[in-house]
Automatic annotation (TrEMBL):
Major location category of this protein: membrane
Cellular compartment(s): Cell membrane; Cell projection, Neuron projection
Domain G-protein coupled receptors family 1 profile: start-end pairs: 37-289
GO molecular function (one): cannabinoid receptor activity
Entry-linked Pfam families: 7tm_1
Higher taxonomy: Eukaryota, Metazoa, Chordata, Craniata, Vertebrata
Protein name (database record): Cannabinoid receptor 2
Length: 343
């Protein structure tokens, strides 16, 4: 590919018919599920006043919004390119790719803000509400989205492959400059490293706190059946980091290899499968970050109860209206009968 042309992007459409069916099934299943889950989280947060005022749920709402964009942009553009073999021009393709990049970059950035929020909650518990106000949380989200918008659409603004498709610069993305790909990959790797570091510090703080409490309370608490807080946090954070790193590391590894060498068709096909892991990560995020929060679960149950009550009220009203109508009709006929008898 390095010394040849790539007309109509045929060198990027390397999937076989069986692979297209498998990837299409994954996207058609994960895309709508991701969209519905994150929309549900957004609706619950925006309709609950107590949640909208708390910075933690603002970050979770930003994560859900980014994953909504990811479910739309990635699914549509990925299927349009690999299954329907649509060959767009440079402007249209880079605009679609910018939307996908914006969604996934904001998703990882929102995960970092969520990790930093939990870090401040543990390390600065006394002054947490003073340090992280709602205004500062909104300002941090504004800065995050502004930076990611600029970074995501830099290729559309002009930082693209100088040779176009004759020959292409990248074996994974048409019209993309390898220097830009290296910078974006490094940026995501730094964000992931900060997330892992924040959760590691939280676990260390929880472990030291539990050790000091055990020494103060003596051996009476050691025999209790309940699990220690640091062990519970370790299991939860290990699951979070395992899913996060497992979904993102294969994709980023292929991008780093693409920057330094030429990929084969087998490696391009493997990358296409690995890229769907990012969509699966967006589908898992609401379960890991939103539905595990007790307040959000209660707000969700309260919203469902209100919907059920509204449905019952509408049903009871519709059932009672014909009865009232029949009573009115009976009253009229009885009055007419009495007048007839009097006459």
């Amino acid at each position: 590919m390095a010394n040849s042309t790539c007309e109509n992007m045929q060198c990027y459409m390397v999937l076989t018919k069986t692979e297209e069916m498998v990837i299409g099934s994954i996207c058609f299943l994960a895309g709508p599920v991701t969209l519905m889950e994150n929309l549900l989280v957004l609706v619950v947060i925006t309709t609950t006043v107590s949640l909208r005022k708390r910075p933690s749920y603002l970050f979770i709402g930003s994560l859900a919004l980014a994953d909504v964009f990811a479910s739309c942009f990635f699914t549509i553009s990925f299927l349009d390119f690999h299954l329907f073999h649509r060959s767009d021009g440079p402007t249209a393709y880079l605009f679609k790719l910018g939307g996908v990049t914006l969604a996934f970059t904001n998703s990882v950035g929102s995960l970092l803000l969520t990790a930093l929020d939990r870090y401040l909650c543990i390390y600065c518990a006394a002054s947490y509400k003073v340090l992280l106000t709602r205004r500062r949380a909104l300002l941090s989200l504004l800065v995050l989205w502004s930076i990611t918008i600029v970074i995501s659409f830099l290729p559309l603004m002009g930082w693209r492959c100088p040779t176009g498709l004759t020959p292409p610069c990248s074996n994974l993305f048409p019209y993309i400059n390898r220097v830009y790909l290296a910078c974006w990959t490094s940026f995501i790797l730094v964000l992931l490293a900060l997330i892992v570091g924040a959760y590691a510090l939280i676990l260390w703080k929880a472990h030291s706190h539990e050790a000091s409490m055990s020494s103060l309370q003596g051996a009476a608490c050691t025999g209790q059946a309940r699990m220690r807080m640091d062990i519970r946090l370790a299991r939860i954070f290990a699951l979070i980091l395992l899913i996060l790193v497992g979904c993102w590391l294969p994709v980023l590894s292929f991008m780093l290899v693409d920057v330094s060498t030429t990929l084969t068709h087998a490696q391009q096909r493997a990358y296409a499968f690995c890229s769907t892991l990012c969509l699966i990560n967006s589908a898992v995020n609401p379960l890991l970050y939103a539905l595990w929060c007790r307040d959000l679960r209660l707000a969700l149950l309260h919203s469902l109860q209100r919907l059920l009550e509204i449905g019952k009220c509408k049903k009871s009203t519709s059932d009672a209206s014909p009865k009232l109508h029949s009573v009115e009709n009976n009253t009229v006929t009885e009055d007419e009968l009495s007048r007839a008898r009097a006459t």
